[in-house]
């Protein structure tokens, strides 16, 4: 839920390249860029382990809020695999591609939860009804993996197929946890006051990359805790962090003082691609681009040059393909679609 909300608020008009090309000048890492979805809000598309399919969340047509879909990497055979109730987010294949996981609020109510209360300022809703579910890849045999008070979502799977990392409010703060793929052996990984979430494993499954916001003053800490008690957070500043998969060795990668999120390791595990508004020059626009940075925080490089939204990047298991969500070439204002390209170093 938290990650997709960036997409929902991207309301500035799309300015995209004319003609057959979907790329902008400067986007040298993309070749054969293709658009896979063409209407609604589509995001967080993640590859299956065999690299042949994507699982993603979408709100289009008559859907009242996000549901989980799968499709082939050419955009064909799109089908809804969540049960159609509540709001869903953060889907991911398990190793073997026979099962998927995703978060859903349907255990609390079959209706879509209300939008956040913006009288509190620009905030995200952290819906307490979110729990993590596992089903077969076609949506059958749905079973719950988490069943604790508060938010449980943002789950991803280690490349070796052994662990799930996720964000939970179960101990009163938004922290990262790991568990086995059957929901057993839950371990808390982060302990600082503030939000830690949106984590992904490194290619060797030994490290995690994630986004975090830790308040540093008593006033900021009080505001964070007061809003969290109302199931809200302020998302204006996130930095990228890495740590070992067991929670040790935490260190900050970015120091951009911007909203940086959706980090993912490059295939060699030496760099991180992520979404950020660091390059935005017009404060009136919600402009997010993709960037790459070395794990040690050096070598920041801008990847996309679209002046609206580009985010949620992921490399295919073989490192040859790159998928992301974007407002480029949208049919109408606010639409977000899934794109895939050959990655060029």
Provide key terms for this protein:
345 residues; mainly beta
Structure description:
The protein has 345 residues and is mainly beta. The chain has one domain (2-343): 6 Propeller (Neuraminidase), CATH 2.120.10. The chain has 2 helices and 26 strands. The strands form 7 sheets. Strands 1-26-25-24 form a 4-stranded antiparallel β-sheet, with no helix packed on it. A 4-stranded antiparallel β-sheet has the order 2-3-4-5. β3 and β4 form a beta hairpin. The protein is globular, with a radius of gyration of 18 Å. The relative contact order is 0.17.
Structure, briefly:
With 345 residues, this protein is mainly β. The protein has helices spanning 2-8, 218-229; strands spanning 30-35, 41-47, 53-59, 67-72, 79-80, 88-93, 99-104, 124-125, 131-136, 143-144, 152-157, 163-168, 175-180, 187-188, 195-201, 207-213, 232-233, 239-244, 251-252, 260-265, 271-276, 289-294, 301-302, 310-315, 321-326, 337-343. It has one domain: 6 Propeller (Neuraminidase).
